Amino acid sequence: MFVCLFAALSWEYIIRTQTEEEQLAIFEKRLHREERHVDEQLRKIVISKDISNIEWKDENVILVAFERGELRYWSSEQVGETDLYNKLKEAGNLVKINNIYYDIRRHSVGDIDFFALIFLKDDYPYTNNYIKNNFNSVFGVNVEDAESVILHIPQVQNEPTVYNREGERLFQVERHVAYENFLPNYFVLILYLVFLYLLFYAYEVVLDRVRFFRVQLIAVFSFFVCLVVLRVLMVQYQIPYTLYHFAIFQADNSEWNLVLPVGDLFLTMFCLTHFLYITLNKLRIKYQEPRLIRYRYLFLLGFVFSAFLYTNFLHFSINSLIENTQVSLNIARFLNIDFSSVVAFITLILGGMGLFVLINGSVRYFYNIFSLREVTIGVVCVLAFCAALCYFFDFSLTPLECLFTLSLYILFILNVYLVKPDAQKSIFMIALVVVSVYVIFLSKSSEVHREITIRARCATEIIGERDSQFEKKLMEIDQVIKNSRELDSLVGLRDEEGITRKILNELTDLSGFYFDCRVFLCTDKDSLLVEPGFTLEDCSSYFRTLIDSTGVRIQNTSFYNIDDFDGVISYVGLFDFNTPAGPDKLYLRFDSKDEGEAIGYSQVLSKEASEDRKVVYPYSYAKYKDGILLTSHGEFNYYKRLEQFGETDFEHVEILTKDHYSHMIIPVGKSGVFVISLGDDVFALYYLNVLYAIFVCVLFSSYGLFFRFEEQEWINFRRETLKRRIKNNIISLISALFIIMTVMSIVVNTDSVERKQSMKVVQISKYISKELEKYDCIDVQVCPQIQDILYKIASMLWVDINIYDQTGTLVATSQPVIFEKGFRGTLLNPIAYRKLVKEKATSFVQEEKIGELDYMAAYVPMMLENGEAYVLNIPYFTKSDELNVDIMLFVIIAINIAMIVMVLAFIFSGIVAERVTKPLQMVNEKLRLMRVGGKNEKIVYNQRDEVGMLVREYNGMVDKLEDSVKKLAKSERETAWREMARQIAHEIKNPLTPMKLNIQFLQRTLQGGNVEEVRQRFKDISSILVEQIDHMASIASAFSDFAKMPVANSEWFNLSELVQGCTTLFENNVDRMICDIEPDILVYGDKDQVNRVIVNLLKNATQSIPEGREGLITVTLTHEEQGGVLAVRDNGAGIPEGIRNHISEPNFTTKSGGMGLGLAMSYKIIESMGGTITFESEEGVGTVFRVSLKSEKI
């Protein structure tokens, strides 16, 4: 355990303290290995000299081939750039092409030049949800924030430098990255998890080996304190660092520090639940201890109140987890579900299982010290008090929610006190369902409350009609305009067109923002045509009134946000210029575009996507002014008039349900109304999560994780019974078949949906191709007007359009910015080039991606009327979300049906297994009750199946056994009488011989005639005869006692006091006696008979010690799980191995005197009380006898 901890800490320390030179050395080593591999591949291609059949499959390396400076082969369109050949020839070893750094490997043969470009790192001008800067994964640079590492061509000597395998300087590195930016090391994480597992295993072993209850309590308390301290240190200091680099362990910006991240909550629930499970499993409670009996109601109070506190903790965990994080626990819906959601779901189910373990364990403790009536009243009273506490104080639970804890207690009390062990599994399953329903019910209520909060916050942001990212851009524009001298000159010349070009083309780069910009140069004499109504107003007055009435200044800039609730985000900038002709005012107005214009490549260009705001729910919203719809967004088709919601005068925020949507209606100002809506289907499948919760519970319990408590009392789910095997086989078979069917149907339907989408994309492509084929020129360089035509078609169909010539070079596009910014190369996709240009295919569709944005790309050939051939490319973004939703909806339905079937399979498999094994259980019960010499009943079973054959064999065996028993009984009786007669004859014959000899001697004495001698002899012989007669009488009494044991007078008595008294009698009969007697051990039985056994054992122990040896007898009495264990150890001669099997037989003895009935009677007494006697002996060393007595009534 500590080896794993030491290894993890050491490994993590090495990683954290690794110097920059060491990290670069590792990077350089891997780079050289990659360069060597690429060079080998290039040499093979150079040898073949065949450009047409090159197959380059390495995605991290791009191969391009030129013949006499003309491009002949490229493995990726990403390197498409103007004058690529000269750039690669003239560049050093490092080149940057379209925002990506490459390591160049060159090979030439004849007129052919090969360039292999090894991908090093992305270097995009900005990042968002789709565009990330990453290193080549081959080099193992596990930096999460790759933007903090900057590569550049070597310029100075003192910066860290990376060399290629030829020893030439490749690039230098500027690092601005801390250890926290490194990705977690999974090997170290595994070591920490192994340590945690071994920690709990060690705790279980300690509790298992400790025999005394007080020591166990110390171990439990100590381990619990250690766990608390460990968790506090982990949370407070974010250790181990590897663990807290995972997203699930990173806390949101919560105002309350008690709210734990998902990962921390999972660890806490796991530790707490596992601690409860092991503790309740291994804790040995002395139920008959007087103090426990005296304070047993405090014992009940402690356990029930602990369950109440645990339920509060579970309730608080669910509420805080959902309300303070963005995780969605609606697993059944799958949308917006990620790894954090799955971990959170398992965490809460784990917490519910902990409550299950706590209540079940406490009820099983109560069973040994309370009656059914006592425990029921006690639990009800304690939980009623807890409900009162919830009413008067601020607990997470409400008084009504205490009924959940009470229902679980009542369920388990009935299960333990009234239900047979074989049927308890059904109650366990009912309890699991209750816990699962409770957890899911709380989760849904918390998530619904969170959704309302998020909806209100989202509405506040939208109502404000502001764009925080664009406002940062306006701050930059403000400084640029104020510092532009050229703009001063243009304003002085009143060159309005020049001013507009200067601002739009040079001073304001709006790429990535969906705003239109208009420029107004106003003097006191200028007028402005204002919509609606097209009225003519004074230019400066109009803008001044607009700014004064609705404008909100953006910090210290000259820009104002226009908050007029018109559905458009608007900003107005006011700049004053002093010109020779007088003061002029320059106004810039930025209005947001409709979201339909922000499709396709615009998602990649968007800087707004880099915001950290994540809207979990698919909201629709609309803005009304004076009851008329201004604008709407989302899937809900909003009404033209507000009155169709039921009323027009909304004074306060209201939530109403209409057309299967929940609408939050918010009044804005005097005449504005904002409506934000969410479909009912978002929470429609929430209660199906109960099935997933039950599945997780069953998964835990299937391996005995929370059900194995004591082998004899708890149902052990790991036991491989026939019923269990039948059930598992049925579940496994049905689950496997349905999983296979589900996967196959998902794959088939996904392919079908994608095929339909592909056909749709091809149809759109062919339609666009037909439209463009009407023109004589579509090359932007030749006919620039085609740009506007492409833009209009793209806007109308919500697609992007790219056109390539027969050499694979881009000639026209509806989104030139995506290529100008280097997000995509200007070459045709090489696979599409081969399909359409070389193989003359009529269409080609494939999945492509830019950064992390996946989309469907369609390629079709296009022939103009003048005979020029081109390739039309349609990157189809518009329906990608719809495609994903269609597929996901089918996946949701399929998986939920599969889950229902698996749960039903689990339920019905138990019924089928029960019906199949019930006859076998009946046979097993009869076989268990079968007794030799007893009355064995036959089984009535009329079915003619395999079980029927077994039953007939059993019935035949009963008849044969009865005959055999009769014969055996008769034989044993005869043998017993013969043995008894022989033993009695032997015991009587022994004293008869000396008696006969003494009488004969007395006769000879009488013949002598000496009266005194006769008298003395008669007196001596008479005493001898009396002694022998008494001995014969004792023999007869002993056999009589053995034949008929007295009726036991059973009662509860203190075994400790009885053993103490017996040892006192024998203290003077042995040189040394050691007593270790645990006090207050109560057993149920006949005290006099047990006294007889103890005396017999002590007597045998004293008699076994040979002469000349210092006698030592050790007597110990301890309390085990179900009673007391007495051990009597001597250092006598021991029992020879050959006679140990006969030690409990009547008339068998190892002493010169005695009849061998003492131990036989002792065995018979103890066995009649339900106990056992065992012994261990070693010749020449001694013997120990152990007597185990149960503390329950027999």
From TrEMBL:
Task: From the Swiss-Prot or TrEMBL record, state where the protein is found.
Answer: Membrane
Q: What is its main location?
A: membrane
EC number of this enzyme: 2.7.13.3
Print the keywords alphabetically: ATP-binding, Kinase, Membrane, Nucleotide-binding, Phosphoprotein, Transferase, Transmembrane, Transmembrane helix, Two-component regulatory system
Q: Name one GO molecular function term.
A: ATP binding
- What CDD domains has UniProt attached to this entry? HAMP, HATPase, HisKA
Location of the Histidine kinase domain = 983-1193
Q: Please provide one cellular component term from the Gene Ontology annotations of this protein.
A: membrane
Indicate the transmembrane segments per the record: 183-203, 215-239, 259-278, 298-322, 342-363, 375-397, 403-419, 426-443, 684-709, 730-748, 887-912
Name the reaction it catalyses: ATP + protein L-histidine = ADP + protein N-phospho-L-histidine
Q: Which Gene3D superfamilies match?
A: 1.10.287.130, 6.10.340.10, Histidine kinase-like ATPase, C-terminal domain (3.30.565.10)
User: Which Pfam family is one of this chain's hits?
Assistant: HATPase_c
Q: Spell out the protein name for this chain.
A: histidine kinase
